[in-house]
């Protein structure tokens, strides 16, 4: 709810009732009207299928000397004011949100009526919706660190709501606000869930999922929602995963195709550029089309995204391999490795020693690399060749652990360049290492 974006609708109103939501009657101009002798309406900031949302000044707060005496008021459209079911939906929305006391969920203060206007009084938020944030970050998406800050806040709100027994069921970027202070606020909590659970003779029998009366937004609705199943946390998990994908790439994971229409053979999921390969499986599981294959809690996704990806042991091992990487270039290795089998036909005692080195894991090899006798240079090079990919991975992990500033930019690019250069001394033909070298000049390359 942002006074700098007053022409942008806050969200589609997904309410189901037995009347058309088209605004066929003349719109009522409430600007300048004072509701309950307290709320002076100043401007229209959003419109939906069943309601308009206004910014209003709370005269009681103003008289008390509050510097920002503003609230947001969601007013039921006049064509619905005489329909009991519509008023009940408004009341249910207010009561459901009032049950949720969380810093990342919008606060609802009250629900009331005045002069046949029925309305909810909510917290005023100065910021912009996530769909606006996503549009501003095109075409690359947000850097991981910045996106993860938002992801953690959204996840915390959903985890809390699910523990309280409330499922959002219409989670999408336009239902999430990022305030100027960097705080996430989710609104329209529980409305779609309540309607789906209480579907009755007053509900519109409408199979057009693009309609704002469907109770959810098809691009973010789970397969089960689209098939008419009862709401459950798995619906929010799918929508949450779609939002994570969009934050990191500015693209919808399924090109905005409804989940029950997706053909993965024609539109396979692609990893966002700003997402680490180690986190991609976790996000893919959240994006699973079918519930039985989907991650079963928001907490699992949040845990993966908040944990330290690179263990300290691997960082130490990476330091060993970089220090020991002073060997000949790959072209020479190729010729010399051909002689490795001949070397391994030495006497039984020597053969046992060689086999012991060959059976080491990558981390164990790095720890014992200096113990290989100098005269067995071919063995050392052969073992490095066998463990080539694992060693490159370790070098890359060390790069990822170089100190970063709060915006996710590496503080010491000379250190990054040194790591890459040392690794290239061992594997000069590595496509990945050369890619990292090319990207090292770009400040956003490791965000």
TrEMBL record:
Residues 39-306 form the Protein kinase domain. Pfam families: Pkinase. GO terms for molecular function: protein serine/threonine kinase activity. The keyword Nucleotide-binding applies. ATP binds at residue 74. Keywords: ATP-binding, Kinase, Nucleotide-binding, Serine/threonine-protein kinase, Transferase. This is Serine/threonine protein kinase. It comes from Colwellia maritima.
């Amino acid at each position: 709810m942002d006074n700098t974006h007053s022409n942008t609708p806050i969200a589609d109103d997904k309410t189901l009732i037995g009347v058309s939501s088209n605004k066929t009657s003349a719109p009522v101009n409430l600007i300048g009207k004072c509701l309950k002798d307290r709320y002076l309406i100043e401007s229209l900031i959003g419109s939906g299928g069943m309601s308009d949302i206004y910014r209003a000044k709370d005269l009681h707060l103003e008289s008390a000397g509050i510097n920002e005496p503003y609230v947001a008021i969601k007013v039921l459209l006049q064509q619905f004011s005489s329909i009991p079911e519509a008023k009940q939906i408004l009341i249910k929305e207010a009561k459901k949100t009032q049950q949720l006391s969380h810093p990342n969920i919008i606060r609802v203060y009250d629900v009331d009526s005045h002069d046949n206007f029925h309305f909810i009084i909510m917290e005023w938020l100065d910021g912009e919706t996530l769909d606006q944030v996503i549009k501003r970050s095109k075409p690359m998406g947000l850097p991981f660190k910045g996106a993860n800050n938002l992801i953690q806040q959204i996840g915390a709100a959903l985890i809390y709501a699910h523990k309280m027994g409330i499922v959002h069921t219409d989670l999408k970027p336009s239902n999430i606000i990022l305030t100027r202070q960097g705080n996430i606020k989710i609104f329209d909590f529980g409305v779609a869930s309540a309607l789906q659970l209480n579907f009755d003779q007053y509900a519109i029998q409408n199979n057009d999922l693009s309609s704002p009366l469907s109770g959810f937004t098809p691009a973010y609705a789970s397969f089960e929602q689209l098939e008419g199943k009862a709401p459950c946390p798995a619906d929010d998990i799918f929508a949450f995963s779609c939002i994570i994908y969009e934050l990191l790439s500015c693209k919808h994971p399924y090109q905005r195709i409804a989940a029950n229409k997706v053909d993965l053979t024609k539109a396979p999921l692609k990893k966002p550029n700003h997402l680490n390969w180690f986190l991609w499986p976790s996000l893919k599981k959240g994006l699973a089309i079918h519930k039985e294959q989907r991650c079963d809690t928001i907490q699992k996704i949040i845990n993966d995204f908040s944990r330290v990806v690179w263990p300290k042991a691997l960082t130490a091992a990476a330091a060993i391999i970089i220090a020991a990487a002073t060997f000949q270039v790959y072209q020479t290795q190729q010729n010399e490795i051909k002689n490795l089998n001949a070397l391994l036909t030495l006497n039984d005692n020597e053969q046992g020693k060689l086999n012991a080195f060959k059976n080491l894991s990558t981390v164990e090899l790095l720890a014992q690399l200096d113990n290989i006798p100098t005269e067995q240079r071919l063995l050392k090079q052969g073992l490095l060749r066998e463990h080539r990919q694992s060693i490159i991975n370790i070098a890359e992990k060390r790069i990822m652990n170089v100190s970063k500033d709060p915006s996710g930019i590496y503080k010491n690019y000379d250190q990054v360049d040194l790591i890459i250069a040392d690794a290239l001394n061992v594997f000069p033909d590595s496509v990945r290492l050369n890619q990292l070298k090319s990207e090292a000049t770009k400040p956003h390359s490791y965000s």
